[in-house]
Design goal:
The complex is a heterodimer of chains A (502) and B (150). By secondary structure, chain A is mainly α. Chain A contains 23 helices and 2 strands. Chain B is built from 5 helices and no strands. The radius of gyration of chain B is 24 Å and the shape is flat. Helices cover 65% and strands 0% of the residues of chain B. Chain B starts with a helix and ends in a 12-residue tail after the last helix. Classes of the chains: A mainly alpha (502), B mainly alpha (150).
């Protein structure tokens, strides 16, 4: 415990340095603003802003990117409550009761509860992250290439399978990402693969132009092909603090949704959206008046908004301790860390304790900043809603191009970004999730390296993956995850004729 | 049979997997130290992509018209956006950041329905100036100077 407090003291020492405090502030403000603007999610924003961080100290940069991540979860609730349009997918459930509360003249308490719930969840998840990180690191330090291969495979399968409307489409996108990850030099021997004589491809496809293309450029193309009309909220907002009855109604919702959000966030692939759905449905199931959910009950706002913030804290656990991202946004943060020459995982805590503990401490500070900022600045966020997409979309494109060019100074990356923008637009139009592509691209070379290293250690014996207990257990979970839907489908097919005959 | 977008994507990716396997056939298969070589992962992933892509293309439940219908004028705006993007990439280094960015923004703002010229010019010039200040001045990143040195 003393050790933990010492590390936390180190973290606060780093986070409270004025420049880091400034970047934390900038991160949470930009994150909230982005969360408020419909359409631009945290993945897009973090991808777009990574180029801005290259001249910065990695600790300050990571503090800012994390601030954007959890700040956007705060901001997402504003549009959901006021104009029934979620700022991002993790606020979809908030629309159900939040908008109804706004229609009943209770937008203030709904926004207040969303902010306070997010603060409580953010704080709880940071405490849990801190407590969970050290035991996980002890386990991770025992990991060899076989275990790393197994956990990366599991992360890829779960993120591939859990995002989007269809497991098969998600897995196909993860495999597509892996295939893209094989472009460039073989990670073990340096032999060029699929480079077609293009020198810019020798180091592989850069993750940033691919990511910015798949998310930001594709988003602009999607918005351009839809209606550019936008809703404006005109009614005044009064009385942001929830009433005593609201507090009483949410007394168990807040801790319960925090725990649900954190646990779901830790699981690779699940993310904030799933956390908010599970938390909302749990509250509805446990409620004495489930029929009132959807008509404007405060628990229906508190549960999803608390859970989605807790999930963003939870997603940091596998990223920092194992180097395995738990969501699309943390996948981009992993890519950014690697661009700065850092390798997330257990050794990061030993080699760069100031970075990791500084980040954790900054998340405490960021949550306090968000609570202080969000309630008084609600009028500003509402005004931000009046920026029409016809102005916003061209600005996003300008920022994407400049940022991508700024990182490498190579115009080839602009073509890569445009190509993946078109690919992302087409894929998303037909319901194919693009986050697994990014994860496959980032994890692919690492997955291959660990796989081949394990086989070098075992002199080509594939049984190494079954002889090491942790690797075997992780691969068993991966196999169950893959086979369960097939078995369930076969079981249903067997039962239908039997019932028909019966 | 009309090939819907959903099936076309599955089929396209299956073909991509096939091409990847064909191209990977020239890579080295194994290593002297044991285990697979350069060819292993591209071939394995190529096979997975073919299987999953073909499964999506051939499964009976795949809806051929799964895409959301475009809004009126949506196709035209999409094509204009794409044309502006391609023109911007082509001119980015030739004309330089400022000279390429201002007309790029003007074209998009007009196409997206902003008809007030003072707003169009203010946004195009202001955003270009702010982005230049942020990247070239504050971060010290060299942006393409163009024929006039900016």
């Amino acid at each position: 415990m003393t050790d933990l407090l010492q590390h936390l003291a180190l973290g606060f020492g780093v986070a409270l340095i004025p420049v880091n405090l400034l970047y934390c502030f900038v991160g949470v403000v930009v994150g909230t603003a982005i969360g408020v603007l419909p359409g631009i999610g945290p993945v897009t924003t973090v991808a777009m802003l990574v180029p801005l961080t290259f001249g910065m100290n990695p600790t300050a940069a990571l503090i800012m990117l994390a601030g954007i991540y959890y700040g956007s979860q705060y901001g997402g609730s504003t549009t959901a409550i006021l104009i029934n349009t979620p700022g991002e997918t993790s606020s979809v459930m908030t629309c159900l009761d939040g908008y109804q509360m706004a229609r009943q003249g209770r937008a203030g308490p709904a926004l207040g509860m969303a902010a306070i719930g997010s603060f409580i969840a953010g704080t709880i998840s940071v405490v849990l992250l801190m407590l969970l990180a050290r035991p996980l690191i002890r386990v991770a330090l025992e990991f060899g290439p076989a275990e790393y291969f197994a956990i990366m495979l599991l992360a890829l399968l779960t993120l591939g399978g859990l995002t989007g409307e269809s497991v098969m489409k998600g897995l196909l996108m993860a495999a597509f990402g892996l295939l893209l990850g094989t472009v460039g030099g073989d990670p073990m021997t340096g032999t060029p693969r699929f480079t077609f004589g293009e020198p810019s491809l020798l180091d592989g496809l850069e993750f940033l132009p691919v990511t910015i293309g798949l998310f930001a450029v594709a988003e602009v193309l999607t918005t351009a092909t839809r209606s550019l009309a936008h809703d404006v909220y005109a009614a005044p907002i009064r009385g942001l603090l929830p009433s005593r009855a609201d507090w009483w109604a949410c007394r168990w919702t807040l801790p319960r949704a925090s725990l649900i959000g954190f646990v779901v966030g830790v699981l690779p692939g699940a993310g904030a959206t799933l956390a908010s759905i599970i938390a909302y449905l749990t509250e509805k199931r446990l409620s004495r008046h489930p029929e009132r959910f959807g008509t404007g009950v405060i628990e229906g706002v508190a549960a999803p908004e608390t859970a989605n913030n807790a999930a963003s804290g939870g997603a940091m656990v596998p990223l920092l301790t194992l180097g395995v991202p738990g969501s699309g946004t943390t996948a981009i943060m992993l890519g950014a860390l690697m661009l700065w020459g850092l390798r997330p995982g257990p050794l990061l805590f030993e080699k760069n304790p100031d970075l990791v503990w500084g980040l954790i401490a900054s998340m405490y500070i960021g949550n306090v900043l968000l609570l202080i900022l969000n309630l008084p600045l609600i009028g500003l966020w509402v005004r931000l809603l009046s920026v029409p997409p016809r102005i916003l979309m061209p600005l996003i494109l300008l920022f994407c191009f400049t940022g991508t060019y700024a990182v490498s100074g190579n115009p080839f990356d602009l073509w890569v970004m445009v190509a993946f923008g078109i690919v992302g637009f087409v894929l998303q139009r037909y319901g194919y999730p693009v986050a697994p592509i990014v994860l496959g691209l980032i994890l692919g070379p690492m997955l291959e390296t660990h796989f081949r290293r394990a086989l070098i250690v075992s002199r080509g014996n594939y049984a190494i993956f079954l002889q090491r207990p942790i690797a075997a257990a992780l691969l068993a979970v991966a196999a169950i995850y893959l086979l369960a839907p097939v078995v369930a489908w076969a079981w249903r097919r067997r039962r239908v004729p039997a019932v028909a005959e019966g | 049979m009309i090939l819907g977008g959903n099936r076309a994507i599955g089929l396209g990716l299956a073909l991509l997997g096939l091409v990847a396997i064909a191209l990977a056939s020239g890579f080295r298969e194994g290593t002297a130290t044991g285990g697979p070589g350069t060819r292993f992962l591209p071939v394995l992933v190529g096979v997975i992509v073919i299987v999953l892509g073909a499964a999506i293309a051939l499964r009976p439940s795949a809806s051929p018209n799964a895409a959301t219908p475009l809004e009126p004028g949506g196709s035209r705006r999409g094509i204009w956006t794409l044309a502006a993007i391609l023109g911007y990439v082509l001119l980015f280094e030739r004309l330089g950041f400022v000279l390429a960015s201002v007309p790029f923004l003007v074209v998009l703002l007009l196409e997206y329905g902003e008809r007030r010229w003072p707003v169009v010019l203010a946004v195009a010039l202001g955003a270009t100036g702010a982005t230049y200040g942020l990247f070239a001045v504050w971060l010290g990143v060299p942006l393409p100077p163009g024929p006039f040195g900016r």
